[in-house]
Write a structure and sequence with these properties.
homodimer, SH3 type barrels, six-stranded antiparallel sheet, two-stranded antiparallel sheet, about 45% helix, binds manganese (II) ion, DNA-binding
Chain lengths: ~240, ~240
Amino acid sequence: MTAIKDNNLSASLEDYLEAIFNLAGASNVARSKDIAKSLGVARSSVTGALRVLKKKGLANYRPYDYVTLTKAGQDIAAEVVRKHNIITSFFVNVLGVETDIAQQAACRAEHTLGPEVISKLLCFIGFVNKNSKNGYDLADEFKRFCKSRPQNNSFSGKQMSSTVGLDEVKPGQKCKIVRIIGRSGVNKRIADMGVVPGTILEVQRVAPLGDPIDVKLKGYRLSLRKEEASKIMVELGQSE
Amino acid sequence: MTAIKDNNLSASLEDYLEAIFNLAGASNVARSKDIAKSLGVARSSVTGALRVLKKKGLANYRPYDYVTLTKAGQDIAAEVVRKHNIITSFFVNVLGVETDIAQQAACRAEHTLGPEVISKLLCFIGFVNKNSKNGYDLADEFKRFCKSRPQNNSFSGKQMSSTVGLDEVKPGQKCKIVRIIGRSGVNKRIADMGVVPGTILEVQRVAPLGDPIDVKLKGYRLSLRKEEASKIMVELGQSE
DNA sequence: TGACAAAGTTAGGTATAACTAACTATACTA
DNA sequence: TAGTATAGTTAGTTATACCTAACTTTGTCA
Ligand SMILES: [Mn+2]
Ligand SMILES: [Mn+2]
Ligand SMILES: [Mn+2]
Ligand SMILES: [Mn+2]
């Protein structure tokens, strides 16, 4: 029933609504100058945004007048603020992120997280609170866990072997050919010389503008144009 | 040391890097057409983005050629993908969000969450996993908790009394004046008549274009211009 | 080989969201 | 009530990120 409708507003416009809503606070009005300050934009940018919000029926705006939100505007603003608070609460009270950082991140993320995620997040906060009442302070436990393993910077995503184009290898470095891109035109020429995947080669000299590149492989010496080299994907050796 | 530097890229450019990185997968090359498809943009948009990425030294791009990422481009792309995966993992495995939705939300949020939040999130996933090995399956417990209280749609943020401008009130509705905005010019005239905060009034008739608005208050009848009415903030009565 | 389809680019356009500089309205104060 | 400071607007510009339509290059296959 009372579902929050797709507001379809840009992050920027949502932030204007949020700022107006927050500034209005007790007085229900916001001044252009304060909106500008709170969003860190020029006053003229606020004028422009207000015109758009008015056209969308979200703000009551007349030039040189105070600004208020329409009912529709208030509803959207309240929803943005709600998301902001839920996300912030999770970051601070569950994850233990520093308040300032959490606020900033939340005010960016609030525009990207849909109702499914937000409702789960809210529920999760409730879950943590309930547990803490039952004697198991999850947030506290987590804080202790964090300290015990200070930085775990890896994540088991797909591991990428760091392959680069031969044109990016510096002189003196050895590397192994992983793959040669394309088979027609200039590249055909390369492939036809013994340059095949698996070959180890060493970059000898690179001309000032990266063209040409001299490499040594299988005893031969070869001069490659940068354009050609860029199509030879290599894996760096552990030299250097 | 090996700190990921501020890449300072727009969300859009990060997504291009991410798409190229993912498409490259085994072959290390990506084709424009596939980048376009995976991001849902026109082919010409890809050309534009590639030019920018090249200028920034992140992609090896020559017109009509395959695309590869430079080392710098790969590093940033890998970081974006890492964030994407961490966020997705949290949404799916901890919060229990549906996979598709989680992926979409993660691919938006990955551009807004900084290293502090991401590292805590990663740590939290580890925390949940460790507990589950120790017999306490937090994610599972949470799932059960979610079901037990289906929808808790409120959040203890600041509660806003729903005040609107008098110009938004429909005929027949009663409301209470909460505040009158401004004191000079036309508004002074209003304030000078017994129209003060606390007064209960009822909207009687609204002309076709919302101007003028006839209201009844304290036995009097008053005709207000829309401009004036918009400055009278009221709280709606429970009629209608 | 050469015709054709597919891939890629260019040109030209729109929308959003900023900015600065210059102007105008409003509010305060003497 | 005039004069000034402040607030707000307008005009004109920039940058990003898309789009469609038309054109060019490339790869394929008869
Ligand atoms: Mn916010
Ligand atoms: Mn925000
Ligand atoms: Mn992503
Ligand atoms: Mn993304």
